[in-house]
Amino acid sequence: MGVLDPLAMLMPPPVERPLRPALFIDKDGTLIENVPYNADPALLRFMPGAGEALTRLQRTGIALVIVTNQSGLARGYFTRAQFARLQQALLQRLQQEFGVAIDGFEVCPHAAGAEGRPGCLCRKPAPGMLIRAAHRHGLDLSRSWMVGDILDDVEAGHRAGAGGLLFDSGGETTWRRSPLREPDAVFTDWAAVADHIEQALQTATGDARWNPHGTAPSNASTLNA
User: Which residue stretches belong to region Disordered (predicted)?
Assistant: First the structure.
């Protein structure tokens, strides 16, 4: 039997921090303009209103996590060092221009498998990056959202147990439909995304029944087909 430490007995038990809700953000075509296979920081252009919306959302206490498929690494279009410089430039610009500190940055470096399906557990529409980020940063997936410009992003969110929001900037061209790929809401501007999430977070206060798949407000559109 071990020796009891009287000082340790006086210490309060460790308090586990509650899990935070998060917004998982696709990079190309959602946060920044889509320049295929770009690794040049000089070509970074934020989508209109994205920085301002993230500034608003950061004030709510929600975690902000970028999750991005980067098959250009597997294809040899750019190196990990080149992408690291792009990532650093993106994070620095968000901080310097908008005061936004990103909580996490998850990258899938793999190419798609047969018939365009994920060949790994992390490439969206697989949920691996979201689940990995949740473990790393103490995130509550059931109170979180994934926002992206294609239905693969929506599906990844739903597969992780989060909400799936479509930022309709023209990236989705196939529209392959299934229940997991039905967006909870569709947006064409970042201000509406921020409105939707702020309203949901306010609704969630003191309501354990809330979930991120709820009804969209009037400034968002639901997608039915």
Answer: 204-225
Per DSSP, the three-state class of 19 is coil
Count of structural domains, the chain: 1
Residues belonging to the active site: 26, 28
**Is 70 exceeded by the pLDDT of residue 225?**
no
pLDDT tens figures, 75-131: 999 999 999 999 999 999 999 999 999 999 999 999 987 776 768 999 999 999 999
The bridge status of strand 145-148 relative to strand 22-25 is parallel
- Reduced DSSP (H G I as helix, E B as strand, rest coil) percent helix, strand, coil of the chain, to 5: 40, 15, 45
Question: Is 159 a domain residue?
Answer: yes
CATH of the domain at 131: 3.40.50.1000
Instruction: Residue 82: give the domain boundaries.
Output: 18-204
Cβ–Cβ < 8 Å for 181, 155: yes
